[in-house]
Amino acid sequence: MVNRKLVKFLSLRYKILAFIFIVLAGGLVLLPKYEKQEGISPEKLLSSTINPERYISTDALADRMINQDPALLLIDVRNESDFKKYTLTNAINIPLKNILDEESEPYLNQDAYDVVLFSNDHFHADQAWILCNRLGYKNLHVLNGGINNWYNTIINPKIPSEDMAHTEFELYAFRKAASMYFGVAYPEKVKKAPVKKPVTKPSVIEAPKKVIVKKKKKKMPIEGGC
Asked: What gap in Å lies between CA 116 and CA 113, rounded to an integer?
C-alpha cells in the first residue's frame, strides 16, 4: 500500500517536472523572436573593425587641438589613477570598465562631436571602440599609438638626421612647435626668454570643456492587451 502511494507521488512529481521543462523549452524557442536586437550586424562590425580609417594620428589630433576644434571630444579610457597623473587637454575620463554604463552613453553616442578614444597604447581604446561600434554609435575614432605615441611624437619628437628628406624636417618643426604649445620648454627658448616658474612636465590637467550630451529618447509604452 505504501509502495503504491509512493509510486503515485513520484509519478505525479515527474509529470510536473516534465511540464515545467516543456514550458521552459518552449520559452527558449520563442525568445529569439521577441529579443530586442541592438547595434549593427556582425558582418558590418567586422568590416569596420579591419578598416584602419578609425585611427587618428597624433599629428592630426595635435593640429586640431592647437586650432581649438570645437567638434573634438577626447575620451580617456584608462583608469582614474593614470588619468590623474597625465592626460590630454580637456579629456574626459570614462574607464574601459564603465564604457557600457548608462551614464557613459550620452558622451559616447554623439552626433555633435568627433569622439576620440585613447589609452596608453591603443589596445584598450580599440576595445572601447568595438563595444561602442557594436551599439551603433557614430563619429568614433581611436588615437593611433595612444599616450605613448603622443609622448614620442608630439611631446618629445625625435630630431631627424641630416640625410633625411625635407618633409621630415618640416614634420619635426611642426611637432616641436606643438610640444611647446603643450608646455614643453626647450633650452634655446629658455635662454632667450627665461621664465619665473620652469615647467617640469606637461602634465597639467585642465578642466574638461562643457559637453552637450545627447539626450536619450523616451521609450513609448506598448499599447494593447486583452
From this structure: 9
- The DSSP annotation for 128-150 comes to HHHHHHHTT--SEEEETTHHHHH
- Alpha helices, H only, the chain: 2-34, 42-49, 58-66, 80-85, 105-108, 123-134, 146-150, 166-181, 187-192
Residues in Cβ contact with 135 at an 8 Å cutoff, skipping those fewer than 6 apart: 38, 39, 109
Terminus-to-terminus CA distance in the chain, angstroms? 48
What confidence tens digit (pLDDT) does each residue in 68-117 have?
A: 999 999 999 999 999 999 999 999 999 999 999 999 999 999 889 999 99
Contacts of 119 (CB under 8 A, 6+ apart): 76, 77, 78, 96, 125, 128, 146, 147
Residue closest to 139 by CA, chosen among 115, 159, 117: 115
Reading the block at residue 85, the C-alpha cell is: 597623473
Q: Structure pTM?
A: 0.67
Q: Which three cell numbers stand for residue 176?
A: 616641436
Q: 77: closest CA among 62, 60, 91, 63?
A: 91
How far apart, in whole angstroms, are the C-alpha atoms of residue 108 and residue 73? Answer: 9
Q: Are 169 and 151 in contact (CB under 8 A)?
A: no
C-alpha cell, 172: 619635426
CA–CA gap between residue 38 and residue 49 (Å, rounded): 18
